[in-house]
Amino acid sequence: MKKWFAVGVVALSTFGLLTMRGTKTAVAAPQGTTRELAPLQLIQKIPVPGVAGRIDHFTAFPKRRLLIFAALGNNSMEIVNTFQAKVVQSVKGLNEPQGVLYVPGLDKIFVANAGNGMVKVYDGKTYALRKSIAWAKNPTPTTFGGMKIQNEFLSASWAASP
């Protein structure tokens, strides 16, 4: 079953937030004044062939214009180029992937698998599996946050391995 994935709103919102970093976006408004924002609009639909079922958490890789998400119902990680409107890679064989996180400083993609408690670490360029780490019974993005990654994955044992 072919599933259409509406990334326009999600991708543009994510990329917008990520690219605003470092720019001065704060606007001082007078007290008591409210500003109405325009509603989000669908920009495009990108087909994601072979993906059926629930889609879970997302991460973005703005430099390469990628949106990466866990296809929980498909047991895969899907990597979509939002500007070319196509899937560039599908990583299959995961076990209930429920969270993905791209870490630019390491150029790695971390995928939390709730089915077996493993965190799979993939290369950010080739998408090749680099490491499997036994983490927890249910490694969700909450237990998978930035400080945990900094403290656990960037330890001496991580630095010593390829």
Topology summary:
Blueprint (H helix, E strand, L loop, with lengths): L2 E3 L2 H13 L25 E3 L9 E4 L4 E6 L4 E6 L4 E7 L4 E7 L4 E6 L4 E6 L5 E6 L11 H8 L2 H5 L2
Antiparallel strand pairs: 1-2, 3-4, 4-5, 5-6, 7-8, 8-9, 9-10
How does this model look, in words?
β3 and β4 (66-71) form a beta hairpin. 16% of the residues lie in helices and 33% in strands. The chain is built from 3 helices and 10 strands; from the N terminus they run βαβββββββββαα. It has a single domain, classed as Methylamine Dehydrogenase, Chain H. It is of the alpha+beta class and 162 residues long. Residues 1-28 and 141-162 have low confidence and may be disordered. The strands form 3 sheets. A 4-stranded antiparallel beta sheet has the order 3-4-5-6, covered by helices on one side. The protein has helices at residues 8-20, 146-153, 156-160; strands at residues 3-5, 46-48, 58-61, 66-71, 76-81, 86-92, 97-103, 108-113, 118-123, 129-134.
Count of DSSP-assigned helices: 3
Q: In total, how many domains does the architecture comprise?
A: 1
According to CATH, the homologous superfamily is YVTN repeat-like/Quinoprotein amine dehydrogenase
How far from one another are the termini?
Answer: 38 Å
Average pLDDT over all residues: 74
